[in-house]
Specification:
Helices cover 30% and strands 13% of the residues. It is an alpha/beta fold and 486 residues long. α2 (41-50) packs across α5.
Length: 486
């Protein structure tokens, strides 16, 4: 595959809903790869519907879902004409468990279809979707929903997605697929798996679908090499992500050591060998502080097809980050006060997680300590094997007594934050609990957040995705010319 035929820019798939369909569509219309976040789309969908589906976009997409009886059932259950009252809690959906509740399986399929459909609507550019390998139970139905909407690329990080290429192959042919579920305490003889059968879902002969390209997000040549040798199916390239990127970061190689500020120390072993990447013979994109034209040019000189950029797009007009949070961060950046902290403990996954230090959010220690722990969305729950062989579920960010009662160690709960609820709050969809408490945000961005105000023109308080793309592609090869919107 020639690099000249590939996008130079891949827009990052950020958080829950920050890189929503509006942002992905704006980037794709310009000839680059717009990416929607595939995390928690079921919750995003039902909360948009309960807010009245402003603009009618969800309902318009649902009209195109190929199995209308499923779409109608979801509308009947969750849509509220005019939107719910601000102090009314959002109606919940079944909690992810194994096996998946049929209603939740339908939500995963439909919500991923909706987001990709809207991102692809009205233009012929390519659209990708980003998933976390650690969030396993939604993966199969989510992939199928995205493929029903003809998603062009699938990106996946925060784990080792060795079996995903084969899943894409099987779904393209209408065949069932299985995925091993990580279970703490499982033995070699145990075989805990999730399963999705397109024929059972559609109630008949499933369609033959285009197989999207697959890009694992990796942080080492050794992982890339292993995936090329052992993946169940072919891999179309890699995103090589450094530790300055936003969201979850790969932990440092070797023993974890922290600096004086409490951040993980990354060393020479964490620097990816570019010559070794080139020798793999597949396209790759570099990510982590590549939001400058000279850095894009540098990546191309290193033999990369281009770069993935997230933070610069997170604060543009088209992103779904709450406007008030955008303005606060942009103003802090303009004052030279925007800071991103690599927190080794915030995420229940155990991966380091980038946190923007912002008063009044969960990055503020007194605010974090005042929050009552709850685990109601449950995307990051971990499965564990009970003495009777059945599965239990626990999360280090749930109430401490619950976690310990389920066999977890109390020290594992220290400083853990409920990313599920916080990231929903980041996009203006916070849960309001029955006692009146409203969930608070926890903003994540890469180190580039310190300079993100550079995109603001004099006197402006916002900037667009187009301005970011044009800025980043200034001076690179002719193949990267920015397309006009179709």
């Amino acid at each position: 595959m020639s690099n000249e035929s590939l996008p130079v820019l891949i827009q990052g798939g950020m958080g829950i809903g920050v890189s929503g369909w509006r942002l992905a569509r704006a980037v794709s219309e310009m000839g680059q790869l717009g990416v929607v976040s595939g995390t928690a789309l079921d919750s995003v969908l039902i909360r948009r519907l309960q807010n009245g589906d402003v603009g009618g976009h969800v309902r318009r997409a649902l009209e195109h879902f190929p199995y209308p009886e499923i779409a109608e059932k979801i509308l009947d259950r969750y849509f509220i004409e005019g939107g719910k009252a601000p102090n009314q809690p959002y109606r919940s959906r079944p909690v992810p468990a194994l096996p998946l509740h049929p209603d939740l399986e339908e939500l995963f399929v439909v919500s991923n279809f909706v987001e990709v459909f809207l991102a692809k609507e009205g233009h012929d550019g390519q659209v990708g979707i980003n998933y976390l390998e650690k969030v396993q139970l939604p993966t199969l139905p989510s992939l199928y929903g995205a493929m029903l909407a003809n998603v062009d690329w699938v990106l996946m990080g925060a784990g080792i997605p060795r079996t995903i290429p084969g899943v894409l192959n099987r779904f393209a042919e209408g065949e069932a697929a299985e995925l091993k579920v990580d279970v703490h305490g499982a033995s070699r003889e145990d075989n805990y798996r999730s399963r999705f059968d397109p024929a059972a879902f559609v109630g008949g002969e499933p369609p033959v679908l285009p197989r999207p390209k697959f890009l694992p997000i990796i942080a080492s040549v050794s992982l890339a090499t292993m995936l090329l040798k052992r993946a169940d199916g072919w891999i179309d390239g890699f995103i090589v992500e450094g530790p300055t990127a936003g969201g979850h970061n790969a932990p440092p190689r070797g023993r974890l050591e922290l600096d004086e500020a409490g951040e993980p120390i990354y060393g020479p072993r964490d620097v990816v060998d570019m010559e070794a990447m080139r020798k793999l013979g597949v396209p790759f994109w570099l990510a982590g502080s590549y939001g400058e034209p000279d850095r894009v040019a540098e990546a191309l000189r290193e033999g990369a097809a281009g770069v993935q950029v997230g933070t610069a797009f997170a604060y543009c007009e088209e992103s779904d980050l709450a406007p008030e949070l955008k303005q606060r961060v942009l103003e802090a950046s303009r004052r030279g006060e925007a800071t991103s902290f690599t927190d080794p403990l915030a995420s229940p996954t155990g991966f380091p997680f980038k946190v923007v230090l912002l008063p009044g959010t969960l990055s503020d220690q007194p605010v974090y300590e005042s929050r009552r722990r709850v685990c109601d969305l449950a995307y990051l729950r971990q499965a564990y094997k009970k003495p009777d062989g059945t599965l239990g579920w626990r999360c280090p960010a749930e109430p401490v007594s619950d976690y310990v009662r389920k066999g977890g160690q109390e020290e594992e709960t220290h400083r853990r934050k409920c990313l599920c609820n916080a990231l929903m709050a980041n996009i203006g969809l916070p849960q309001v609990h029955s006692d009146g408490r409203t969930e608070l945000p926890l903003v994540t961005s890469g180190n580039d957040v310190a300079q993100v105000a550079r995109f603001l023109k004099p006197g402006a308080s916002t900037y667009t995705a187009r301005e970011v793309v044009e800025y980043l592609l200034a001076g690179v090869r002719p193949a990267a010319v920015v397309a006009e919107p179709s």
